[in-house]
């Protein structure tokens, strides 16, 4: 969190050296067709981190994210939540927000209705939820679009709704599975800035799955590079920058050199795993 | 680092994606008028041509009555035709309502468990591929009276398209949305109410439109098959009766009533479908391109 101390205000609820949010120990995952998606993967996620899972196709980064979210169990190994209350499904109650690769909105519900969903499923009444929903929509700049239907929104706006829905429960951990892969570059950069800002403002811990070296180097303070066949952690790189992450940073020598290092590591990971990119 | 998102962030992006839906501007007044006038004019032309052919060729009305003869028959035979229409309408509508309730309920039951589906599937196929009208004589034996037999017949015909559409709809829920519901610990009940039923709505509406039309057809054909007769009979009996008596104008009048009933059912089901889907479903949304 060096960069925070220098240029950006410290994230609100991330204590220095915060506790462990989730710990994967020697996790393996074999799919029913025999594919070994993950092999002996271990990862400790500390509160307040912004981690990118970076790797070639088929390295199991999305599988790892889904396992953390409780969508599909492990074949061996354990997933621990040291600081959360665990519910009947073995998941931390209400502590996870998930943003899929697609916006995954309900087309029959308005933007408001979509963001209301997580609270509604918990039995929160509309009247009580409304201020929280409007606050979440405000955070992503869509307060004026509460009554719109998803089909009336652009791809970027739909993704913002998806992010608002993930944040409305004020989760400890935000999981994002290549959320911006389908967006154009301008929208993608804008959303990168917004996610970064949301992370700072809310103190939520983020695990962000991406293909993009540039995106991971821009967003994260830790990049976990994964290799394929079998999927496991290849390198764990802390990303410490001296200034704020903004347009200036994108153009800086520092960003370039970080991208270069990450790119080299990724190349090595691909080489080792014989993966395709 | 900008810490504030401009309030218009969403609007800025609206232009960057071709998937932005644009509602068509309202049709001009003239266009609206033409939309009503053209179909009416077409029907009018056909009716006039019909009358002209009959008049010019002096076709007797026991062979082909003109529209005027049909109109006269409609008004003089109204006391006979109206109760018959009412009977047919009752059978059609009650069969449709029962088919909707039954179709949805059984579809929901089927998708709850793979085992139930596996068990019931062969039965549904057998019943679906058997021409239902062919079991009408059997129904006449078992049913307490003809009306009930007709109702069962019309119900069976309307029921299957609704059931199969509904099963299809309940199964075509976005996989990621199901994951999302799991993630938030949704109960089966919540999943059904908030996800599966709304997702199945367009399929239900398709089933409703098909089922509505089929219910009327079945009500008529079943009555032919049942050979019902007498005061409590529907329009199908009046059709046959008019045929036996060579009262062709009345036959045409009864036919006209049936086709008007069909049009009305089509109109009502289409309206219901449009009202419930217009805000979000592609089928009901108008786009500029």
Question: Which tags fit this structure?
Answer:
heterodimer, A: 277 residues, alpha/beta, 2 domains, six-stranded mixed sheet, 9 strands, globular, B: 289 residues, mainly alpha, MetI-like fold, 0% strand, disordered N terminus
Task: Please explain how this structure is put together.
The complex is a heterodimer of chains A (277) and B (289). With 277 residues, chain A is an alpha/beta fold. Chain A has two domains: 2-95 and 171-273, Rossmann fold (3-Layer(aba) Sandwich), CATH 3.40.50.300; 106-170, no CATH class. Chain A is built from nine helices and nine strands. Chain A has helices spanning 2-6, 61-69, 111-121, 126-139, 155-167, 185-202, 213-219, 247-250, 253-273, and strands at residues 20-30, 36-46, 50-54, 76-80, 96-99, 173-177, 205-210, 222-227, 232-238. Chain A has a six-stranded mixed β-sheet with strand order 5-6-7-3-8-9, sandwiched between helices. Chain A has a three-stranded antiparallel β-sheet with strand order 2-1-4, with helices on one face. The longest helix of chain A is centred in the C-terminal third of the chain and has 21 residues, at 253-273. Chain A starts with a helix and ends with a helix. The relative contact order of chain A is 0.19. Chain B has 289 residues and is mainly alpha-helical. Chain B has two domains: 23-58; 65-284, MetI-like (MetI-like fold). Chain B contains eleven helices and no strands. In chain B, helix 3 (67-76) crosses helix 11, helix 4 (78-112) packs antiparallel against helix 5 and helix 7 packs antiparallel against helix 9. The longest helix of chain B is centred in the C-terminal third of the chain and has 39 residues, at 188-226. Chain B is flat and about 75 Å long. The model of chain B is unreliable at 1-24 (pLDDT under 50). Chains A and B meet through helix 3, helix 5 and helix 6 of A and helix 1, helix 8 and helix 9 of B.
